[in-house]
Amino acid sequence: MSNQKGSILVTGANGGLGSAIVSRIVSVPDLETYHGIFTVRETESATALDAALGASSSEPGVFQSHEKISLDLSQLGSVREVAAAINARVEAGAVPPISAIILNAGFTEYDTQTWNKDGLDLTFVVNYLAHWLLVLLLLRSMDRERGRIVWISSWSHNPEHPQNIMNGSFKDDSCKTMITDALDPLAKGLWSPTASEKPLWTAAYRRYGASKMCGVAMIHELQRRLDQDPVLSKISVLAIDPGGMNTGIVRHSPWLLRFLVFQVLAGVLGRLLVRLYPNGSWRTPQKSARDVLAAALDCGPLPLTEQPKGVYFNGSELGDYNPEAKDPEKGRVIWEGSLRFTQLQGTETILRNWQ
């Protein structure tokens, strides 16, 4: 372990983008000195992750240590158990401190709406709340000189994005404001409920976007709190939109949508479009994996720096994002709600300004 630079933690490592990130980590010689911590819902059925790890074994001269961990992001108890185990291993010196946490796992629905055992909307919990809790718990294990937290975003979080204007998902003005005076409507699935919507997909899509917006807000709210902490002030928080890709996150959508939009447009034409427009709407998981790892580890070229704090990337360039995520008052509401719904205690995090 003495020769390792640090650890890279990736959630959702069995997904389309997640497995592409892992494939790059374990196959690029420059990354072989990092230890990979790859979380999936069930390690026994992580076929895409296993394929990415298996392909690396045939690469000459490349050896990268890694581990697979089962993490159920729908249950906050699972988050606490996994974080405690990782913290103990870092403290014992079994694995190096975490250089980058890549919050990649995602979940979306189509014509249904589900809640976890605590009565919280599953889309909100998996995409945002569980990730927020994981980060707060793992701060004690991060590299305090160069550590980075990377939220994987989506154009769905911004009602004014051209794709959202085109698909009409936010055409009703009442849907364009996601946060008012409390986080409860988002957390409990009362904002944009599926049961009251036609067509059904728009409600689920908006909830997905709102959960992503909460994560983007953390590039300001969490970054501000880290900057005020004398121990953690060098840690960077950023977000990146990887673009539209043909991945398993659309598996709950109708067959025709999956085929025409994601398999044909994103899957086939995407390989051509990404050559013409590298940061356009449609990209490949491989291109986006390169962008994500650059955001997580690289110090240049601009807009990347040694400490790219509070930066939102669209692929490899600066991107525009939902003004709600930039609003300090909205950030405070999201933070306070996150504390309530996770029941975070001061003994669980080393962040000084956690309340």
UniProtKB/TrEMBL annotation:
Its EC number is 1.1.1.270. It comes from Apiospora arundinis. It holds the Pfam family adh_short. Pathway: Steroid biosynthesis; zymosterol biosynthesis; zymosterol from lanosterol: step 5/6. InterPro entries: Ergosterol_Biosynth_ERG27, NAD(P)-bd_dom_sf, SDR_fam. PANTHER family: DEHYDROGENASE, KETOREDUCTASE (KR) DOMAIN-CONTAINING PROTEIN. This is 3beta-hydroxysteroid 3-dehydrogenase.
